[in-house]
Every structure is written in C-alpha cells, then in structure tokens.
Amino acid sequence: MTDTVIEARDLRRGYTGGFEAVRGVSFSVARGEIFALLGTNGAGKTSTVELLEGLAAPSGGQVRVFGLDPLTRRAEVRPRTGVMLQEGGFPSDLSVTETVRMWGGVTTGARPAAEVLELVGLAARSSVRVKQLSGGERRRLDLALALLGRPEVLFLDEPTTGMDPEGRRDTWALVRELREQGTTVLLTTHYLEEAEELADRLAILHEGELVLSGTPAEVTATRPARIRFTLPAGVPAARLPLALRAAAFGQRVEIRTERLQEDLTELLGWARENGVELAGLDARSASLEEAFLEIAQNRRSAGDRTDDDTMAGTR
C-alpha cells in the first residue's frame, strides 16, 4: 500500500470579489517522491502550495499532510516540513551565517549553520552580507533555511529562479540526494527541463484546474512525436508517401506522428529508393515543453470559442 504523505481532494481557493484561483484540484504525493506542479503565471500553483503548507484555509475541499490538516494541526505538521518561498525577506545587513543562525533559533532540531551552508554551496560566502549576494545566491540561502530542520516534506516554490546553470544543476543534485534519503518533495517550477529532470510525477494546472497528470513520460506520450527535414529543390512534398501526414512550408517538411519508428522507417526507405537527401533530419518524441504549450494553447482556444459562442448568442 502506498504511503501517501500529501493529499489534496477537490481543493478550492477563492478570493474577495469572487475570483477562484484553485478550482477542484485533487492529487496525492507518496513518501520519498518528487512531485512537480506546472502551470503558466496565474495557473494557481502558488495558491495551491500555500494551502498545502497550511498558510491559508481552503474555500472548499480537503488538504492532508501526514494525514493531518496542516492549518488546524500546524504545531504537529510544521516541524516536519521545510518551505522555500518564491522570495525570502532577509535582513540585508546580516551576514549569511548570521541569517542562518537567526532562523535556526526558531527551528526545531536545526542543523549547524556550517553544515547547511555546505549543503547548498554557500560555505565560501558565509561571511558575506545578504545584500551583497546575487539573486541565485539568495535562492540558495532560501533553500538552506528550508533544509535547516531536516524536513520530511520539502515544499519548493520556483527553487532555481535566478540561478546560473551550474547552480541549477547543483540544486537538482541536492534535491535528488534528499529524495534518496527519504524526503518527499513538492515543487513548482517554470523550467520544464527541471520538471523532466527531477519529477517522478507531475501535474499541469491551467486557470486553477488540474488538466493532466502522470509521470513525465506518460504526459509527453499524450502528444505526437515529430519528424522534420528539408527536401532538395525540385522535390515537392507531394512526392512523399501518402501514409505520411506531412505539412510543408516550402521545402521544409514536418510530420506529426504517434508511430515514430514506423513512419521514420518508411520515410528513410522512400528517401533511399528515390535518392533523396533529407537535410537537417530531426526525429524525436514530444517534449514536456511541447505538451505543456499545446495544453495551454488548446484550452485558450477553447475559451476563445466559448466566448465567441456566448457573444453569438447575444446578437
């Protein structure tokens, strides 16, 4: 039986004026799993995570962390969780070490400052004032404070924003290490590569609703693969095998397919038999980015059609 650590059931969050940022979201996260919440700006990611962290009460539905309500049972839940917000408010004149020690003073079972700064790659910057840190270094400091209490559950809200590529990779390695040690991680991110690299499972939110979830492979498998190439001058796309559903833009051709291996084999066989060179040939499965953008575009188009239908009904 799966050991569920985080659970949201029909979760809703409304604001003054009637705006509903989270609309009936349901998912669960198992112990030792990395779960990513994806979505465009305004999709409801942060609003959802704040409910899971016990920072606000849901307008409807239910949240459980360790089987407990994180708001009403905060005294029991909070010492077992670590939270990395999108932006921390640090006193700018304190040094990095002073900031960690100050935070450690109100953290149950806090790690030594030197230990946690070594974990996040800030040991060499320990005596630097916070105001002198780069944006990426401040994100590392945010992460250090989230890890102070050796959390069983770690909430990461856009954890690598502002980090350079090296810092991002180092943070990914640390998150994987934490998972190997049994930490459950729920993260939001705008970096789709980050979700592909880290997440065991993910969910895509759009306008407050959960529209697709699964492993990264399962999510990308819902979208067709593509084959791209350029035909030589004088070879029209109409000469391609009829079984290949191709779209041509001059000599540039794109084939969308759910049978990548079969269609690629047929294409290469046709090219060999006809002595045609396929310049810039590129064949690949759908990426998470493609799946994400297609979901957002399709739902936006559907919304536009609904608006058009509504307007048509009023004319």
UniProtKB/TrEMBL annotation:
Compartments, as annotated in UniProt: Cell membrane
Highest taxon, organism lineage: Bacteria
Family annotation (InterPro entries): AAA+_ATPase (IPR003593), ABC_transporter-like_ATP-bd (IPR003439), ABC_transporter-like_CS (IPR017871), ABC_transporter_ATP-binding (IPR050763), P-loop_NTPase (IPR027417)
Pfam families xrefs: ABC_tran
GO MF term (any one): ATP binding
Annotated membrane topology: Peripheral membrane protein
Official protein name in the record: ABC transporter ATP-binding protein
